[in-house]
Amino acid sequence: MYLGVDYYPEHWERERWDVDARLMEDAGVELVRLAEFAWSRLEPEDENYDFSWLDEVISILGGHNIKVILCTPTAAPPAWLINKHPDILPVTRNGQRMSFGARRHYCITNRNYYYYSERIIRKMAEHYKDNPQVIGWQVDNEFGGPKCYCEGCRKEFQLWLKRKYGTLENLNKSWGNAFWSHDYTAWEQIPLPVVYYHNPSFDLDFRRFFSDMTVRYSNMQIRLLKGLNSGKFVTHNFMGLFSELDYYDLSREYDFVSWDNYPRDSSNRYRAALAHDVMRGLKKKNFWIMEEQCSYITREDITRTFPPGEMRLWTYHCYAHGAEAVVYFRWRACNFGIEQFHSGILQHDGTDNSISYRELKQIGKEMGKIGPEIENAKIVSPVAIIYDYENIWVNLAYQEKPMYDYPGEILRFYRSIKRLGINVDMIKSSDDFSNYKVIIAPLLYVMTDELAKNIKDYVSGGGIFIAGFRCAIKDESSNMLKEVLPGKLRDLFGISIYAWDNIRDMAVEIKDRDGKIYRGDTFADLITPEGAEVLAQYNSGWYTPYAAVTVNRYGKGKAYYTGCGLSQEFYDSLMKQLLSEYSIKDIVFPEEVEVNIREKDGRRFVFITNFSDKSVSIKIKRDMRDLITDKYINGETELSPFGIMILEG
Ligand code: GAL
Ligand code: ZN
């Protein structure tokens, strides 16, 4: 396991590098990420390379036992390159070519950009291939945009469509181009979706295309690096719940996923937890944190400074969800540039008196002791939630803003499961379901015959499947199905849906079989049971005769349909009822605390994280060993503000 920092030595004078390396070593830093946006310093002019400064930094770091990850610098093409090939710059949706500046200013399909990217990568990889201190590569930085609307991209898109549909008849039919006279009679007529209200099918294919083009460019880099640097790993820094790329596709050829974790503050704890689980799910493998927030950050605004303890809390939260390394962004706050109000482990003054530096020292000491014990420990889960980019895109494709909050719909279930101390896996809809006791699928719009069959096989074999509202309403082209809803799954759920409504800010009541009242929100599928048992009924106005939540026996298993958003207690009680055999019984903890478990060689490590800035008390019902202090604990125990504990047993 590694503890590391993102370091930009080119932002400081040469004399400072020795001081930095010493302070890093003192704090337990074992790994440094370098050269991320350094193209203008590595190739100051066309074909004129200078790696001497980087060699020197690496050798100074080596003197302090620090290993290195190098980045391909392609997220920031230098000015000379843009000047020579202005066609590399992306074109915005309204047809304007962007200018040089900021970063990520390149068109991802541009052939010239491929050429220069390959050239600098080849040079770097050849230069560092025999350097054992360089253990791996990060490709580019945070793929994802901007989307480009240039003529080159338009031609690529037309080709992509031709490959996909073969004939224009197919395309016109799949997109429903009879609507508003959109029929095409030649491939060259097809535009890019620059106008709003274009067509959801068109929009969905453009999203797939953009994702594919990014994967193609990313794979070019991976293959090049692997070919030239066989012993070194290749990864990329993903962005958690970012939704513009199919991350399952993007991650395929990387050795492992890393990601950039900026939770901001503890109000986002469940989203951060979910993001970790999504990242672990991409390759079903533990992951790295390549950029971990160490205190205040800048985006549109400047966020709060982390109080003492909070950086450490978020760090252990990463390990709790399956991180194998945590690398902080960034070693030192920069004195210039657009991120000058962004924190670093060291502040702008460079002294070792910062809160983050002191905390890093503590973490370094702790991880030095416990790292080898928890390294490669796995996360095993009885429950999975489907997280699917096609459905995220369909949810977006209607207009610019999502119809519903996709992660938000997942979080309704997720929170309740975490409150029981149960691990959650995030999976693709095409994954094997058989390892899970329960599968949950909010906003599963798109339904194919194959997926319907997999779900039915899973349930008939004894699985429990839970759908959220708007299930199985669309085909793969984002068109509404002609079937009575929930379409291909009607017999599985034993229900039909002939009417629905957007609840928005209406007050809607839902009553369960015991007369308990819940609030309904967001959307209402008005369910007519056809053999299913009704678990809760609408109890407001014209919704009243309809069912809101149902369950149906199907083969050896059960299928639940939750037709609307409900208050949290509803999910709490459903999850408790279905998963109680897996909940943590030997530790009692309040809501501010999250509990996760990693397992290795028959050993069980329980990660306990307190997200409150106050101390809280937990109850441990049998002897467990605290990995950090080596003491055995039993009974009522205090967790300090933002405190953490890792217990074995
Ligand atoms: C990340 C990015 C970093 C830095 C950071 C600031 O998304 O990868 O380079 O900009 O945000 O929070
Ligand atoms: Zn382009």
Characterise the protein shown here.
This protein is of the alpha/beta class and 649 residues long. The protein is 31% helix and 24% strand. It has 17 helices and 25 strands. The longest helix is centred in the first third of the chain and has 29 residues, at 200-228. It is globular and about 75 Å long. The mean pLDDT is 97. Beta-D-galactopyranose binds at residues 141-142, 260, 262, 291, 297, 329, 339, 342.
Cα distance, first to last residue?
22 Å
Small molecules (ligands, ions, cofactors) in the structure: beta-D-galactopyranose, zinc ion
Please tell me what the overall shape is. Answer: globular
- Biggest sheet overview: 10 strands, mixed
Which strand-content bin applies to the residues?
Answer: 15-25%
Mean pLDDT over the residues:
97
Topology:
Layout: E1 2-6, H1 16-27, E2 31-34, H2 39-42, H3 52-62, E3 67-71, H4 79-84, H5 111-128, E4 134-138, H6 151-165, H7 168-175, H8 200-228, E5 233-235, E6 237-238, H9 247-251, E7 258-261, H10 269-282, E8 287-293, H11 310-320, E9 323-329, H12 355-374, E10 383-386, H13 389-396, H14 406-419, E11 424-427, E12 438-441, H15 449-460, E13 464-467, H16 490-493, E14 495-512, E15 517-529, E16 533-538, E17 547-554, E18 557-562, E19 564-566, H17 568-579, E20 587-588, E21 593-600, E22 603-610, E23 616-626, E24 632-639, E25 644-648
Parallel strand pairs: 1-2, 1-9, 2-3, 3-4, 4-5, 6-7, 7-8, 8-9, 10-11, 10-12, 12-13, 13-18
Antiparallel strand pairs: 14-15, 14-16, 15-19, 16-17, 17-18, 20-23, 21-22, 22-25, 23-24, 23-25
Beta-D-galactopyranose (GAL) binds next to loops.
